[in-house]
Write a structure and sequence with these properties.
With about 140 residues, this protein is mostly beta strands. It contains no helices and 14 strands.
């Protein structure tokens, strides 16, 4: 799959469960890109968007600004998801990768979950789902 620059990608599906439960969030370096993985316990959520932005400042669930490390960011939004039940990791993950610098949960209310990704510079990315285990993978091209 090709990397998209300054884009928004939607990955919704029909027939999703009422609530997909997040159980792991991590970032790791690969040859030529950094990978953010968000895994689910039971199934893939019905609505997913991954949106790049020209700032590392995001709006929290309460409307307050949240600034991450980096100069740009990407917001990953899940509709029909929950990270309160099965996710027991940190809500703020700082990493020292080529492109990805920080991951932070900025919303988890009702059935909407949002993770913000702070990146070193405007990043090109690609997003896809894998199964066994079910997970969203967002790759950020290393510049």
């Amino acid at each position: 799959m090709e990397f998209k620059c300054s884009a928004s990608i939607g990955l919704g599906i029909s027939g999703a469960p009422p609530v997909a439960r997040v159980n792991a969030v991590r970032a790791e370096r690969h040859a030529g890109f950094d990978r953010v993985t968000i895994a689910f316990t039971n199934a893939r959520p019905g609505g997913v968007t991954v949106t790049a932005q020209n700032s590392a400042t995001f709006v929290g669930a309460d409307g307050s600004p949240i600034t991450l490390s980096g100069t740009s960011g990407t917001l990953v939004t899940f509709k029909g998801a929950d990270s309160r039940t099965d996710y027991h990791g940190p809500a703020d993950i700082k990493v020292d990768l080529a492109t990805v610098l920080e991951l932070r949960k900025v919303e988890d209310s009702g059935t909407t979950v949002q993770w913000a990704v702070g990146v070193a510079s405007p990043a090109c990315f690609r997003a896809m789902f894998y199964s066994s285990p079910v997970r969203l993978v967002v790759d950020f091209r290393a510049e």
